[in-house]
Amino acid sequence: LSNSTEANASAFxxxxxxxxxxxxxxxxxxxxxxxxxxFWNQYRGRAAAVLRPGATEEVARxxxxxxxxxxxLVPQGGNTGLVNGGVPDASGAEVVLxxxxxxxxxxxxxxxxxxxxxxxxxxxxxxxxxxxxxRFFPLAMGSSGSCRIGGNLSTNAGGINVLRYGMARDLVLxxxxxxxxxxxxxxxxxxxxxxxxxxxxxxxIGAEGTLGIITAAALRLVAIPRERVTAWxxxxxxxxxxxxFKRSRDSFGELISAxxxxxxxxxxxxxxxxxxxxxxxxRRTPWYVLMDVAWMFESxxxxxxxxxxxxxxxxxxxxxxxxxETEAQRANMWRIREGQSEAASKHGYIIRSDVTVPIAEIxxxxxxxxxxxxxxxxxxxxxxxxxxxxxxLHVNFLxxxxxxxELYDPLLExxxxxxxxxxxxxxxxxxxxxxxRRAVWARKPGAALELSARIKRALDPSNRLNPGxxxxxxxx
Length: 476
Ligand SMILES: Cc1cc2nc3c(=O)[nH]c(=O)nc-3n(C[C@H](O)[C@H](O)[C@H](O)COP(=O)(O)OP(=O)(O)OC[C@H]3O[C@@H](n4cnc5c(N)ncnc54)[C@H](O)[C@@H]3O)c2cc1C
Description:
By secondary structure, this protein is α+β, with helices and mostly antiparallel strands.
C-alpha cells in the first residue's frame, strides 16, 4: 500500500477505535486469521483490519467513516458462504465488518408469529429461541451451527425445508439495514401485508453485502409440527426418484418439507468416513431418497407414510425403504445427507456446484453427467446430491488435490453448459460471490446486468461495499 493509502487507513482505524472501542478493532495477524478464510478453508484473503461492532449505531458509524475515507468493507456473518463472498480479497486493503457480536434476540411474539433478531445471531440459536417460545423457524441447513442470520438473508439461503417453507426471502417480514453512507434504513415492521410502494427490503436479501449491511431482521415463525416422519428409500434410477416425488406430492402435498436425493458413492463415503453412521437399508442401489413429512397432529402420519411406501414398493418405484423408528435413526439418515462434503473431503479436493434445472430435467442432467465417463479424467468422482424436490442438485467433483486447479474450470464449464441447455441456473442457493461472477453474467441478458449495475451504483456509488462480489460495475 502507498504511504498516503496507509495513512488514510490508519486514520480510518483510529476513528473506528474511538467509535466502537479499541478491543473491537483487530489488526494483529493472529486475531484476523479466522476472518480471512472461509469454513472449508477454500478461499483466503488478507484484511487490513477486522471490526466487530456491537450495535446498529456502531455499524452506521463505521459505514460513514468508511465512506469518508474511501475504505472497502466486507460484511461477514458465520463465514460459511461457498462462493467467496465473505472473505476479503488478497490486496490487504479491505476491512472485514464482522456482525458476530450483534447476536441478540430483540423480541419474540409467539401469537403474532414473528421474532426480531440481530444479524449476528447464529441460525441454530434463532431456531432454539423460536422453539423455546413454542414456535418453529424453518430455515435449516448443514451449516446451521455456524452461519448467522445476516449471512443467511444476504445469500437468500435455501436449505432443507424450502419445499414447504420457501427460501430465506420467504421468511422475512422486515429488515434493518445500514446503507453505504452510514444512514440506517428502518424497515423492521413485522407486517404480513404492506403494499406501500417498492418492497425495498427485497433488494438487500440475496445482495451478498453489496448494497447495504443487514443489522437486524423481523422473521416469520410458524407452528411446530407435532409428528414428523423421516423415510429413506433405495431407488434404481433418477427417473424413479422423480416419479416418487410426484407420487409423494400427490399423497402428502405441502406436508413434505424435504425431498433429497443422494448417489451411492456419496452414501458409501459417508458410511465409511463419518463416525457412528450406519447404512439405513442394507439393499445397495445407485440412488437413495431421503424424505421428511410432518403435520400438526400428534399421530396418524406414520401409518399413512407406511401405506404409501408399501404402494411405492409394489409399483417398483423403490427397491427398499425404511422409516426412522427413533430420533437416533432419523439423525443417522440426516447425518449421511449433511455429511456428504465432509466425508468426501477426506479423499481429496471438492469442486462444488449448486445447479438447478426444472425438476423433470433432472434425469437428463444426470444421464449427461454419466455420459462424461471416458471424457473426464478417471480420477474424478462425480457426487451429485441435494434438494431434488426443488430441482436443485449439488453436483460435486471429488478430485485429487494436486489436480484441483487444473480441473476446476473445465469441469464446471462442462456442467454449466449442460445446465444452460436444460434452461437451468448455475447458482440455486449459494449466490454469486466472486467465484461465480463472470460465469453468471456471461449467461444473463445484457439488460439484467445493466439494470443490476444501476442499482449497485444508486446504493453504493463509490463501490465500497464488498467490491468485486456479485457485480463489478467497472466491467460494464
Ligand atoms: C456444511 C455447509 C452446508 C451448507 N448448506 C447450505 C444449504 O443447504 N443451503 C444454502 O443455501 N447454503 C448452504 N451453505 C452455505 C452457507 O451456509 C450459506 O450461504 C449461509 O447463508 C451463509 O451464512 P454466513 O453467516 O456464514 O455468511 P457469510 O459466509 O459470512 O457471508 C455470506 C455473504 O453474505 C454477506 N453478509 C454476511 N453477513 C451480512 C450482513 N449482516 N449484511 C450484509 N451482508 C452480509 C457476506 O459479505 C457474503 O457475501 C452451506 C455451507 C456449509 C459450510
